[in-house]
Amino acid sequence: MNAHHQTFDAAVIGGGLVGKTAALALTQGGLRVALLAQPCAALAAGATFDSRVYALSSSSQALLERLRVWQALDLSKLGPVYDMRVYGDAHAELHFSAFQASVPQLAWIVESSVIERALDAALRFQPNLTWIDTRAQALDFTADGASVGLANGNVLEADLVVGADGAHSWVRAQIGSKMDRRDYKQTGVVANFKAEKPHSETAYQWFRDGEIIALLPMPDGHVSLVWSARTEHAEQLLALDPAQLAAEVERVTGEQFGALECVTPAQGFPLALQTVDKLVAPHVALVGDAAHLIHPLAGQGMNLGLRDVAALAETVAGKEAFRDLGDMVLLRRYERARREDIRALMIATDGLQKLFSAPGPFAKVLRNTGMAFVGAQPFIKRWLVSAALG
Asked: Which DSSP state fits 4?
């Protein structure tokens, strides 16, 4: 049987939030787009919450608003963050306030599936988008574009291939982009809880014994846990039953929210710093975790990926009429537009992780003195808030 060939302006490989947002942005920009992805998986039977949530910044909100996705989200599932309190391991404390920073909110806490379902609905209404639920298994290049061989035997021809296929990106491997990965030897443990006490739309973060515990405010009196724990400790946490995990979270957070009731199974994911030597190649651009991976202590990984999407869409929209989408002159504009933002956030998150995991009394004094200094400087705090908002 002969392979069936289809031709597109762009093919997006990868079906997470970043990949689907990229496909939507490009097709709304007037391109014919193929998306190689699966629809959002249904929640487990009886589940009412996703274990995985994201803290979306103002820049992410603005992008989703431009794509008319934000307006379609269930407002009852959005949790604003108006304040954030960060506690060191020796009485130091930082307080960030949306009011003091003159912004509407510091972030929005949203379940992954809530965003993905809205993206899926928007994608189904795009006449120039073809959704293909199969995987790519070959990527070849000619002077005119890229050829993507599919597992079902068909072939896609595209001027531009967008690699949005995660930290272990197949697309990245095909273009020979060298990846440098440093394992933090930590696992992010996530779960959601019903809280006895109100959270007042405040996010909390504690640094304890080289680990980081965050509780993020969710609607209807719920909070979401992100515990960056040493891998051996994370395995112990994941082995606890829901009541035991709730009791342990109560203990390490000083019962900030009173009694907790675990409402989603705990899940874990390995934490690492990952960099690549190039974001683009002829006819290919990388976005999201395929392009970078950072520590979640600042909650900025998804925002960084969505800023990739915004920059790529803007670069494509500004293309000269005589250029192809896969022209390296064009794609290097995207790469240059993203390098500084990615590098700055990597340095910041990696530096903070090293500082708060360093043993010894000197390191402890240094980090807590630094926190106290930042807490006393309104200008620095406003700058940090501005940077986090994107």
From this structure: P
Strands 33-36 and 5-13: parallel
Compute the distance between CA of residue 263 and CA of residue 194 in angstroms, rounded to an integer: 7
pLDDT (0 to 100) of residue 389 = 62
pLDDT tier for residue 100 given thresholds of 50, 70 and 90 = confident
Report the SS3 class of residue 103: coil
Q: Residue 193 sits in a domain of what CATH number?
A: 3.30.9.10
Q: How far apart are CA 114 and CA 124, in angstroms?
A: 16
237 part of a folded domain:
yes
Rounded to whole angstroms, the Cα distance separating 159 from 366 reads: 52
Cβ contact 287:257 at 8 Å: no
Enter the DSSP assignment of 90: S
Distance CA 184, CA 229 (A): 10
Give per-residue pLDDT as tens, 271-314: 999 999 999 999 999 999 999 999 988 789 999 999 999 999 99
254: containing domain: 55-111+185-271+361-389
- Could you give the CA distance from residue 156 to residue 154 in angstroms, rounded to a whole number? 7
Average pLDDT, the chain: 90
> What tokens were used for 182?
């440093």
Q: At what angle do helices 361-375 and 378-389 cross, to 10 degrees?
A: 90
How many domains does the chain contain in total?
1
Q: Where are the alpha helices (DSSP H) in the chain?
A: 17-28, 58-66, 98-101, 112-124, 170-174, 231-239, 242-252, 301-317, 328-357, 361-375, 378-389
Is the entire prediction scored with pTM above 0.70? yes
Using alpha carbons only, give the angle 335, 325, 329 rounded to the nearest 5 degrees.
Answer: 45
Task: Determine contact, residues 293/273, Cβ cutoff 8 Å.
Answer: yes
